[in-house]
Each structure stands twice: as structure tokens, then as C-alpha cells.
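Morning!

This is the sequence you dropped in the shared folder:
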Amino acid sequence: MERQARGGAAKERAQAPQLRRRLGRADLRAVPQARRELRELLRHWGGPGRSETAELLTSELVTNAIVHTDHDAVLTATVEPGGLRVEVRDFVARRPRLCAPKADEGTHGRGLVLVQSLADAWGVRPHAVGKSVWFELDADAA
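The structure's back. C-alpha cells below.
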């Protein structure tokens, strides 16, 4: 699911506005803090509702990393000319599972379904240690 970088993309990404934040192991306070920091980064970005969608999807990825691993994680959000890329890297190789939530699970089990439904692109990229779960949003898409 990972897109191939085009020539010069790494240079553009290095100059693009970016949020990078370490997420402490099992620290659920990181979720609202990440949303606030992302909101600040996206203050003048995107069409109507895009930054709110980005906040929701980011909080889902951050929550998954905090709840389903027993390690720290790293959140990176990069504003590029065409849109936004958010990536949460953790240090557990186990891939997240996309599954339909059950009615008796309350609000649990819906995170990746939301990401799949609302993101313009998303995926999982393995690393030598762990993985990154990412999504992209176009700036002006509805």
C-alpha cells in the first residue's frame, strides 16, 4: 500500500511544515495532546472539515499504538503541497487487523474502519523493528 516517492519528494518533505512527537508507552494523555498539536499545525490547511477529519484519524492511530503495543511510538504529520500525511511508528511487528466491530464492543474496534473509510489513502509499512501505520488526506477533497 506504500506509495513510491517521486524525485525531489524527500527534499519537499524536509521543508514541509511538520509535527513530530514521541508517544510514551501506555500514556493515553498523548491522544488529546497530539490532537491539539495537529490542530495547530493545520490551522490554515485544507478545505472545510479536512483538519477535523485529520484530527479524528490521527487520534485513532495514536490510540491504537498506545493501547495495542507495550512500547513507545512516534507520530509524524507532514503538510505537503497536495495534502497531509500522518504516520504513527511503533516498535511491534504485529500488523493491525481491520475487522468489522461487533455491536457489543461499544466504541472499540472501529479505528481502522474509520481510517479506511475517511482517508484518501492509508497503509502499513514494515520496518526492521516495528511498523508505521499511515494515512493521507488531500487538502481540498470533500
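Headline: Residues 84 and 112 are 18 Å apart (CA to CA).

More detail when I'm at my desk.
O.
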